Queue: 3 jobs
Job 1
Amino acid sequence: MLYGKEHVQRYQETDGEEGHDWNNTTVLLLTTKGRKSGRSYTTPLIYQKHGDDHVVVASKGGDPDHPEWYKNILANPEVEAQVKGDKFTARARTASKEEKPELWALMARTWPDYDEYQKKTDREIPVVVLERVK
């Protein structure tokens, strides 16, 4: 099973032929700029489409702290995303309170563990909307 850096590498090498379909769901690659280092970091994340947007969840498995990629988008919301062979620039934003219930339900249908992750932590797990820029 692909995971972490190996997942990213195989996804990039095969334009997602390996790595897009993962554990009965779909994965994109999200590249953020480090808020301290300024370096690029690429993370494989489960996603779903919602209209023209892509939706991901900053769950970190229910950890009490946000994942690093989420902290990076708070500092710099311009990101790069790759869905299979489609690479694009996007603006990442946290879903509003009004949007979140619908988007959370969408994501929990594709990865039911999200509901368990939320029960494990006092942190409100953010849902992130990636809006294509170009």
Job 2
Amino acid sequence: MPQTLTKAVIPAAGLGTRFLPATKAIPKEMLPVVDRPAIQYVVEEAVSAGLGDVLMITGRNKAPLENHFDRVAELEAALFERGAVGNLERVRASTELADVHYVRQGDPLGLGHAVLRAKMHVGDEPFAVLLGDDIINDGGALLRRMIEVHHETKASVIALMEVEESQVSSYGVVAHEPGADDDLVRVTRLVEKPTPAEAPSRLAIIGRYLLRPEVFEVLERTQPGRGGEIQLTDALQALAGAPDAGGVIGVVHRGSRYDTGNKLEYLKAVVELACRHDEVGPELRDWLIGFVANGGPDASASPAEPVAVGAGPGGDRGYSDRTG
């Protein structure tokens, strides 16, 4: 009988600097998408695929994540006394959603290092990794397909999506051979954030992985790579060339996916999921149709200018965001 997968690991230690100042006091994973924080969609996806044991890899200032999935007795009591049954059910739903655990990453040494921090919790079992930035609102269908492929092949499985040539430098990209089904490829090589000229294909790794426990041993001996970080892509490259570890299979995802660590993609996620929402969806769709038909925002209105921070005689004191 195939081993049942029950554990999901969600790396959520990034600083969220692309959303400052909104993320100055709250984690980026807690930014709302309609009426839920982004991270709740990711946990719901894991649970929909049968992964009810969730480990979050966090860092400093991530206490709101733990608070969100914990009981708030005072709030529940107040809602009960007011007869606010709907709100009470929604509050309790996040608490009862999954068995959620937490461990801190400590040093910000990359995604591979974050996954390695899950070793003691996961043990000698295959497990899923879901990046906390990515919303794939498909009711767990992609993850269930990845689990099915793992059971059939015993391989590690990664989710792939075709991207524009101009976008390949933002992803890990794979070289591949045809797989057993139309949505499958066998991965032969992985390249982290290549230039368009270096990219072996346009199939990019998105934030869903199903890994055999051998990945921990590989990560322990993986040296820091691009950006001085321990890259999960480098460990996957080692697994792809190790037949005794099952190799690596890619499942090509052709549905929607939103990177909520990116401002534009975050806004797209809010709009799409709001349009599907039972309460606000119908009115929002009608408003959007009229808004677009009328040419969008008033071109004569001057947009608010952002306040320049750190500019002056010393020049621009901005910095590169590698921690997202």
Job 3
Amino acid sequence: MADSKYQQVSELVDKARHGNRNSTDQLVMLFHEDIFRMVYYRTRSRMDAEDLTQEIFMQMIKSLPGLKKTSRFKSWLFRIALNRIKDFYRKKSILNFFGTSTEVDESYQEISQNDDDPIDKLMRKEFWEQFRQFTEGLPRWEREVFILRFADHLGIREIAETLKKNESTVKTHLYRALKKFRQTPGLHDLLKGGVP
């Protein structure tokens, strides 16, 4: 985020913390797409992503008065989202264990609204499927850092704040993941071709 956007967000957060409804609504609008994309990538279900995104913003509104540093709002919000996703999977695994899950198996779909070109859509779908397979093969922290950096577009400092790790640890995990990424020819070739 540029400095002016950081300043704008900081001011909105400060007003929202003191009960300004308009500022709260603006924060939701500013970050809704980012949070939805983040959740959707991790759940691969539009319905679950919509529900979780709503829960994340409800948690944000409830917890906002306790946020001490307004400059860390984005990483704080992403941490709320990661925790909600973990809770979602914990609950899901319990339901699956007891055989009470009503889960519908949905195939992963690209979020993009541009469905004009079927070849383009197919290539995007192929890229995201390979991206998912690649990240699932990474150790936990390499996977989290890589996804936060390249799917969620967070900077190193924001990732460190989100994961509560120091920046040098984040850089090490990112370096290791990137090294593995460069050794994965399918993904690398798709990227060279400009997908997505």
